[in-house]
Design goal:
This protein is an alpha+beta fold and about 150 residues long. It has one domain (about 1-145). The chain contains 3 helices and 9 strands; from the N terminus they run αβββββαβαβββ. The strands form 2 sheets. A 5-stranded antiparallel beta sheet has the order 1-6-7-8-5, with helices on one face. Strands 2-3-4-9 form a 4-stranded antiparallel beta sheet, with no helix packed on it. A hairpin with a 4-residue loop joins strand 7 (about 125-130) and strand 8. Helix 1 runs antiparallel to helix 3 (about 110-115). The longest helix is centred in the C-terminal third of the chain and has 9 residues, at about 110-115. It starts with a helix and ends with a strand. Mean pLDDT is about 80; it is low at about 1-15.
């Protein structure tokens, strides 16, 4: 009961903002049609991997593996990301000036609420827009690797 009261008292930080995630060696990935999900694997309950194709000017350029580690939430939605976003977060997302399809909500209320439950783990609230779907994840870390051989 105490923890529920504690969670209800957490307010959204006035510093909450949506920021582009810059991928090492790739920079910003721009355009909803730049990524196409090929495969999603649950490695264990707290680790999810996504294999995506990265399109540049309409042709496949690279294949990437995106690993979400320390996963608390992993959600795939059809174009409308509203799902677990608060009204304020959704408005910020809808009105954002971000360029990348790979974004993070800094100081997210969802991350702050779950930080209390998960013993002050540093959580990242990630949004990934792909051609057909949007991915929302609350996790401890993300790793993006280029794949040179996919089967």
């Amino acid at each position: 009961m105490n923890m529920i009261k504690e969670l209800d008292n957490i307010k959204i930080s006035p510093r909450m903002k949506l920021v582009d995630i810059n991928i090492s060696n790739l920079g910003l990935i721009k355009g909803r049609d730049a990524l196409n999900i090929l495969e999603i694997k649950s490695i264990n309950p707290r680790k999810v991997e996504i294999i995506v194709s990265l399109f540049v000017n309409g042709s496949t350029q690279k294949f990437l593996k995106i690993m979400f580690n320390g996963v608390i939430l992993f959600k795939i939605v059809d174009e409308n990301i509203r799902g677990t976003l608060t009204e304020e977060e959704f408005e910020m997302y809808a009105d954002s000036n971000t360029e990348s399809v790979f974004m993070e909500i800094e100081n997210s209320s969802l991350a702050k609420k779950n930080q209390v439950i998960y013993r002050n783990a540093i959580l990242r609230h990630i949004i990934l827009e792909t051609y057909d779907f949007n991915v929302e994840s609350l996790c401890e870390s993300i790793i993006v690797e280029e794949l040179f051989n996919i089967s």
